[in-house]
Design goal:
By secondary structure, the protein is α+β, with helices and mostly antiparallel strands. It contains eleven helices and eight strands. Helix 6 crosses helix 7. It binds zinc ion (ZN).
Length: 293
């Protein structure tokens, strides 16, 4: 009955075809709208990320932090409406908020802070003068050898002599300029990466404090500045007794990641009062003892 009716009624056919076409048109409009939205969501964040990573340093750690701050929330999801999403003037509202979490990341090169400004004042922590890879001295810090450190060294050397060991402090105070000469020479010889492990950049040497000595044994100069010295009787004596005279072995074995320098059996640092003994007994580095970097 119905089929017959349909065939016989062109008006009904036209109406139903029109309805189908109308549904198809509405469907395609809706589909386009959906695609436009999802495309926007998936494409925009990448673009934003790229721009941001160019602005920042291009180091490896940075990108990890970025996704949380930007991307997802940037091309706002509720900014739909009828028109395809164009950039209106409102976006800046959201930009400042996402910048905030991506700060304070310090970039290091061989333990040094990249782009660190030259120091204008020396760093004291609990009264202790610090010179390490994170805490440089001003180029103008040029007080020479500390008399107390020298006196303490002489006392220690005398005690060692009584035990039959003749110590030599073959390197003590070094000025900023002299350290620069040394460091530049080592870089030229071994490259920056290697030089940074055993020689400080100018301003970062503990020798500039006037409180540090490189110590060896007289007659065994071939072992100066080598860790073989640590195996000798004199090296052992120092490791076990220096703290009694106010000195610590500044760069112990296995603490390179904390002190920033490889083990140096010959480098001793003077600390006033009982501090050297306390650090020695705690069995830690100066950085650990003071709770600094
Ligand atoms: Zn030294």
């Amino acid at each position: 009955m119905n089929r017959k009716a349909n065939r016989k009624s062109p008006i009904a056919m036209i109406v139903s075809i029109s309805i189908i076409i109308l549904i198809a048109i509405l469907g395609s409009i809706y589909y386009k709208f959906e695609v436009a939205q999802t495309e926007e969501k998936s494409v925009k964040p990448n673009e934003v990320e790229n721009v941001e990573t160019q602005n920042k340093t291009n180091e490896t750690e940075e990108p990890l932090k970025q996704p949380e701050g930007n991307g997802a929330d940037l091309p706002s999801s509720d900014k739909n409406g009828e028109k395809p999403p164009t950039n209106s003037g409102e976006q800046p509202n959201q930009q400042p908020a996402k910048e905030a979490p991506v700060t304070e990341e310090v970039e290091l090169e061989n333990g040094y802070i990249v782009g660190q400004k030259p120091a204008t004042e020396p760093t004291f922590v609990k009264g202790v003068l610090i010179a390490n890879k994170k805490n440089p001295l001003p180029a103008t810090y040029n007080k020479g050898e500390d008399p107390k450190a020298r006196a303490a060294y002489e006392k220690m050397a005398k005690a060692a002599m009584e035990d039959g060991l003749e110590l030599v402090a073959f390197s003590g105070f070094r000025s900023y300029d002299y350290q620069k000469t040394l460091y530049d020479r080592y870089v030229k010889r071994d490259g920056k990466e290697a030089a940074d492990r055993y020689s400080a950049r100018p301003g970062y040497s503990e020798h500039q404090t006037g409180l540090a000595f490189d110590i060896g044994e007289k007659g065994r100069e071939e072992l100066w500045l080598t860790n073989e010295f640590g195996q000798t009787e004199a090296g052992q004596w120092l490791a076990q007794n220096a703290h009694k005279y106010g000195f610590i072995l500044r760069y112990p074995k296995g603490k390179e990641d904390i002190t920033g320098f490889m083990h140096e059996s010959w480098h001793f640092r003077y600390l006033e009062g009982e501090l050297a003994a306390k650090v020695y007994e705690a069995g830690v580095t100066l950085e650990e003892y003071l709770g600094i970097q």
